[in-house]
Design a protein that fits this description.
heterodimer; A: mainly beta; seven-stranded mixed beta sheet; four-stranded antiparallel beta sheet; B: mainly beta; six-stranded mixed beta sheet; 11 strands; about 0% helix
Chain lengths: ~110, ~110
């Protein structure tokens, strides 16, 4: 039972570099999410998807892009990394045909932009 | 704006009971959720309230009052492994989760 798998777990980027955070789930969940977590703040939604081929912006989408070509995969792309993107990123999924608040999270990816 | 408030940090003694409060102001309400997050790990789902009242799950209980915009998480018979952050989240009218900053619970022997 892999659940939600994120890679990489840690990454250091230079300002202006680009990278992709990978996320895969094997639970056949329709809903997938990308959050960032900063110290002293609640989780902030970056992008979400309600199914393959459908994505939408969350609260803090600037500087990021996503795609959802399959049910399983939901990669997050960072273009032109900035120090403000230093954070811990969590991918999550949830079951069902409608959004629920019971999310299954990946282990997180700690990104530092220098 | 939408807001979730919970204490930043609490300390309790092993074997005791602790109550973590959460107040919220959101655009609509479609449920309140509690998550546990150990340091350096992912959040894990604990409980869900959509109607007023108490939901009990073993040592953990969660209470909701929608009219007061208030919830609490009650942890009984505290164990050292309960040392973690506890996140309160509310699902708003757009079915988006709004998250509090979390309460760091420190358990002392």
């Amino acid at each position: 039972n892999a659940g939600v798998t994120q890679t990489p777990k840690f990454r250091i980027l230079k300002i202006g570099q680009s990278m992709t955070l990978q996320c895969t789930q094997d639970m056949n969940h329709n809903y997938m999410y990308w959050y960032r977590q900063d110290p002293g703040m609640g989780l902030k939604l970056i992008y979400y998807s309600v199914g393959a081929g459908i994505t939408d912006k969350g609260e803090v989408p600037n500087g990021y892009n996503v795609s959802r070509s399959t049910t399983e995969d939901f990669p997050l792309r960072l273009e032109l990394a900035a120090p403000s993107q230093t954070s811990v990123y969590f991918c999550a999924s949830s079951p069902g045909e409608h959004p629920t608040g019971e999310l299954f999270f990946g282990e997180g990816s700690r990104l530092t932009v220098l | 704006g939408q807001n979730i408030d919970q204490p930043t940090e609490m300390t309790a003694t092993e074997g005791a009971i602790v109550q973590i409060n959460c107040t919220y102001q959101t655009s609509g309400f479609n449920g309140l959720f509690w998550y546990q997050q150990h340091a350096g790990e992912a959040p894990t789902f604990l409980s869900y309230n959509v109607l007023d009242g108490l939901e009990e799950k073993g040592r953990f209980s969660s209470f909701l009052s929608r009219s007061k915009g208030y919830s609490y998480l009650l942890l009984k018979e505290l164990q050292m492994k309960d040392s973690a952050s506890y996140l309160c989240a509310v699902m708003d009218s757009n079915y988006q989760l709004i998250w509090g900053a979390g309460t760091k619970l420190i358990i002392k022997p």
